[in-house]
Design goal:
Blueprint (H helix, E strand, L loop, with lengths): L5 H14 L4 H9 L2 H5 L7 H15 L2 E5 L5 E6 L3 H22 L20 H9 L2 E9 L4 E15 L2 E8 L4 E6 L3 E10 L7 H4 L15 E8 H9 L7 E5 L3 E8 L3 H8 L5 E5 L1 H17 L4
Antiparallel strand pairs: 1-2, 3-4, 3-7, 4-5, 5-6, 8-10, 8-11, 9-10
Helix pairs in contact: 1-4, 1-5
């Protein structure tokens, strides 16, 4: 058994048991007939390896799998993490699967084309996560893109957040005691101090509940957003919701009306504009007017108006 193949095994076991309970023989047959096992030229899978894999799955992903004696000794998933943790585990496992798959095929560049745009700032990811976990005070230079200036920031790092393929540090800025978001691509000259800070009792799930991306308006109530999508676009938005609160309130063969509850931030407005004529804002009036202003300004850029 190849030592670098374990994450692929874990993913396949979870995938098989999510479908239904299975005996060892059923799991073995599923694994050995998978493309992953065949391409890696793995032809055996023992009960001892299965037991090790089940323990590892529980330790890594907190998914408990038991051998149910009352059900023909079938293996079944009996407990798993809360949705947010489970989603994180799934994404982590998927990432490892992709890496392992690419390593399996030395000629993958002939068949798999990766995004050529490079993420900046990821090189400080580990140091920032270390500072967050150990509650260490940090300092860095921060680049303001609009003003093209650099300022020194001393902060208490709280969490890392991803938004639209970019990573952000959410931290308490000691200059004004405000929680702010800092793009990792704009952080340089990072320093970690020995000084530590007390744990902040902040519920970031609630903090970002009505946010689109990283912008929050804690002093405002979220808006009820209603969007009408064309037949061409509706399936894309159904399969990849704009927000966790998104629901369908009307659907016909010609259109689909979505409703969600969030802060109509600049980022959200830009997202809506990116769909062009395929998405129309029905409510609230404030967002409709903002969209109109942006469209008029865009037309003026091309001397249409």
């Amino acid at each position: 058994m190849k030592k670098d193949f374990f994450l692929t095994r874990y993913a396949l076991i979870i995938k098989r048991l999510e479908r239904s309970a299975a005996t060892y023989e059923g799991i073995e047959d599923y694994l050995l007939n998978s493309f992953e096992f065949q391409d890696a030229e793995v032809y055996t899978y023992s009960k001892r390896t299965l037991q090790r894999d089940l323990r590892a799955i529980q330790n890594l992903f907190n998914i408990e799998i038991i051998n149910d004696r009352s059900n023909l000794f079938k293996y079944t998933i009996v407990s798993r993490p809360i949705m947010e943790v489970d989603e994180y585990n799934q994404r982590l496992l998927e990432s490892y699967q992709i890496i392992n798959t690419l390593n399996t095929y030395p000629d993958f560049e002939d068949y798999v084309f990766l995004e050529s745009r490079k993420h900046r700032g990821i090189n400080s990811f580990y140091e920032l996560l270390h500072a967050i976990r150990n509650r260490k005070v940090i300092q860095f230079s921060y680049h303001n893109y609009l003003k093209n200036t650099f300022t020194e920031r001393k902060v208490h790092p709280l969490i890392l957040k991803e938004s639209k393929d970019r990573w952000y540090l959410v931290a308490l800025d000691k200059k004004d005691e405000q929680v702010k978001c800092f793009g990792l691509d704009r952080i340089s000259n990072l320093s970690l101090f020995d000084a530590t800070f007390k744990k902040y009792e902040m519920d970031f799930k609630t903090y970002f509940k009505y946010a689109f991306g990283i912008i929050c308006f804690q002093d405002q109530k979220p808006y009820r957003i209603v969007l009408e999508c064309s037949q061409n676009q509706k399936e894309y938005i159904k399969s990849f919701p704009l927000h966790d609160s998104q629901i369908i309130v009307e659907e016909t063969t010609q259109k689909c009306v979505f409703e969600m509850l969030l802060y109509p931030s600049y980022d959200f407005m830009q997202e809506i504009l990116s769909y062009g004529k395929e998405v129309k804002v029905l409510e609230p009036p404030i967002l409709i007017n903002q969209i109109k202003e942006q469209l008029i300004a865009s037309c003026q850029n091309y001397q249409i108006l």
